[in-house]
């Protein structure tokens, strides 16, 4: 059997049955990486010696009768997570030699669950791109077409999964950084409800790994099947043991339904601020057809949906305001001057990004109040529907574009150019209110590229979009390996 492309669920069953050992799985994964990753460049920090030692330890533990959720399963970790003894750079050249002293919380949870960490996966500079390239580790290519990006910022993890380099990976998401790479590479990912999984230790180099909860950002699982997402989410979920974990434990409610015909689903195809490309429209229609054929209630419109334009503007302000504190004073003052020169009638997303970057605390409080109103609006949506299906980005994976001035980049949507960063608006639909969202592959574009959609669910009801993802996977075929 080709173990490298098997799901974690299949590997766990094979390990329990004695059909294969963790050492064998790990050696096969390492051999595949050494043979094929030169062309993909997904694994930027290999840790093969320690992986082999961990695999031996997993086999010994199983021989003693132990059984843990991920015991002996090879996995990868996004470069931005601290792993003791390995560099954490976020692609920032001056920090190429920074090595943290302790593991991030989620790395500790992986290891406690018995996972074998093969190494770290590539990211964009400071995790701030829809691509994955930096001066330290170079460019990660999409396994389906090496001239295209695998997405970002968890692009190395998605490319690794599609290539058979480990059965699972962990990433992070504030602007689609889990969902977009999954969509571009034909794998699965889940952006958990905001606050569900502790992020401590997923911090820039030199930053202390404090138990802080960053606004909008989450950490989450990536896999080659929906059931594997649930397996890994159960390992990751839970508050930080230094804060809420002192008094709280997580018990997620079960999925609202188990059968496709019981689901009530809203399909959102149009966004007022950006076009939806034909390949993504086709993917949405495939999903809608499967839902209808399965007996689900499917609607294309609802007056309950909060205003998507207002939501995008709130998301943009909240997202970009977080960058201001890290800017040099002279850069911040220059941006303030540019923002002051914007016309009052300039309602573009570019203007919203600039205004957000230099927004005052008062303005942030106002935006946060708007977010709470939108959250309440989404509660009304999910009283009527169980899930919302919509694009992740407007297009499949696009060609590499390393223009250092990202404001000059453009995204081509069926022959019409849009500002590069405008493609983030669909990611913000779930991110701004903190909703869970599962990325599901749906098939291929006419050019043969993977195309996915996101299934958005109610807050802390993560199992509902995950269960719907499982049911759609059964009908749509799920993961397919690149040819």
Automatic annotation (TrEMBL):
Protein name as annotated: Amidase
GO molecular function list: amidase activity
UniProt xrefs under SUPFAM superfamilies: Amidase signature (AS) enzymes
Keyword Hydrolase carried by entry: yes
Organism: Streptomyces guryensis
Keywords linked to the UniProt accession: Hydrolase
GO CC aspect terms: endomembrane system
Phylogenetic lineage: Bacteria, Bacillati, Actinomycetota, Actinomycetes, Kitasatosporales
Enzymatic class: hydrolase
Gene3D superfamilies in the record: Amidase signature (AS) domain
Pfam family, one: Amidase
EC code: 3.5.1.4
Domain Amidase as annotated: residue spans: 24-464
PANTHER family listed in its UniProt record: FATTY-ACID AMIDE HYDROLASE, FATTY-ACID AMIDE HYDROLASE 2
């Amino acid at each position: 059997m080709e173990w490298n492309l098997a799901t974690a669920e299949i590997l766990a069953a094979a390990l329990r049955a004695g059909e294969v050992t963790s050492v064998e799985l790990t050696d096969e994964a390492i051999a595949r990486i050494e043979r094929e990753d030169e062309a993909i460049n997904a694994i930027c920090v290999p840790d093969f010696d320690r992986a082999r030692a961990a695999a031996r330890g997993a086999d010994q533990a199983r021989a003693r009768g132990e059984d843990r959720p991920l015991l002996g399963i090879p996995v990868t970790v996004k470069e931005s997570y601290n792993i003791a003894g390995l560099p954490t750079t976020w692609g920032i050249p001056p920090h190429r030699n920074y090595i943290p002293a302790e593991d991030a919380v989620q790395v500790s949870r992986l290891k406690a669950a018995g996972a074998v960490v093969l190494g770290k996966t590539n990211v964009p500079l400071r995790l701030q791109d829809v691509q994955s390239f930096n001066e330290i580790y170079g460019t990660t290519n999409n396994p389906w077409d090496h001239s295209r990006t695998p997405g970002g910022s968890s692009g190395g993890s998605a490319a690794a999964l599609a290539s058979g380099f480990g059965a699972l990976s962990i990433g992070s998401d504030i602007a689609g950084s889990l969902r977009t790479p999954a969509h571009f590479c034909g794998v699965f990912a889940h952006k958990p409800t905001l606050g569900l999984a502790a992020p401590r230790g997923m911090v820039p180099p030199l930053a202390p790994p404090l138990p802080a909860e960053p606004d909008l950002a989450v950490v989450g699982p990536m896999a080659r099947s929906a059931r594997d997402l649930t397996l890994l989410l159960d390992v990751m979920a839970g508050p930080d043991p230094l804060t809420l974990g002192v008094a709280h434990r997580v018990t997620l409610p079960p999925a609202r339904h188990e059968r496709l015909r019981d689901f009530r689903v809203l399909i959102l195809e149009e966004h007022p601020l950006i076009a939806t490309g034909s390949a993504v429209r086709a993917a949405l229609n495939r999903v809608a057809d499967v839902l209808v054929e399965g007996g689900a209630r499917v609607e294309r419109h609802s007056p309950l949906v909060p205003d998507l334009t207002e939501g995008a503007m709130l998301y943009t302000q909240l997202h970009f305001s977080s960058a201001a504190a890290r800017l040099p004073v002279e850069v911040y003052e220059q941006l303030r001057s540019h923002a002051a020169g914007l016309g009052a009638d300039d309602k573009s997303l570019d203007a919203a990004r600039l205004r957000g970057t230099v927004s005052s605390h008062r303005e942030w409080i106002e935006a946060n109040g708007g977010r709470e109103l939108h959250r309440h609006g989404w509660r009304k949506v999910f009283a009527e529907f169980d899930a919302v299906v919509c694009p992740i980005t407007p297009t499949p994976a696009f060609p590499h574009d390393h223009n250092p001035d990202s404001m000059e980049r453009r995204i081509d949507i069926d022959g019409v150019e849009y500002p590069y960063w405008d493609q983030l608006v669909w990611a913000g639909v779930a991110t701004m209110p903190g909703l869970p969202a599962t990325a599901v592959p749906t098939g291929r574009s006419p050019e043969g590229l993977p195309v996915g959609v996101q299934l958005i669910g109610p807050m802390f009801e993560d199992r509902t979009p995950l269960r719907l993802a499982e049911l759609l996977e059964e009908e749509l075929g799920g993961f397919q390996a690149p040819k």
